[in-house]
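User: Show me a protein chain along with its predicted structure.
Assistant: Here is one chain, sequence first, then structure tokens.
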Amino acid sequence: MSIAWHYMRDGVQTGPASADEIKNLITSGAIKADTLVWREGLASWVAVSTQADFAGVAAPAAPPPPPAPAGSADVEQNKVFAVLSYLPPLLFLVPLLAARQSKFAMYHCNQGLVLTLAAIAASIANMILDQILWHIPVIGFLMITLLNLAVFAGIIVLVVMGIINAVNGVCKPLPVIGERFTLVK
């Protein structure tokens, strides 16, 4: 007489079943490697993949998920400071003063500082061009309007991208300006 096996299916004890029936259930995918089985002689329920009767049929149970990255606590604790880094005009100073020990906050503080300086430089260049273009009738006014709109929209897009990166917990440089300068370490 063959050994009677019992197994758990959807939280319900099922069986008895023969070893061949269990093998067929494994092959069909109805039973996974971590499904609990029991037979007379076992002290407790065990994963089917640990039993010699099913060796070669049941794949070993999947390994547990890897531990969270070492800096994940830093990221979770300092997301607010990272987001503040992108808000104008000088909120990049908040993480610089309050979260100096955080690599995540300092990365975004640097990005926010570079973005602020780039916005100031773009605004100054824009004012100079406005003074020059103002002397060109009609076309100058249109060019000033489009230039101001483009600069403003570009800054807003970079601010939103930085905030999204900070909220998602990633250290991704902003396009055009993000990789060029490291002012805060």
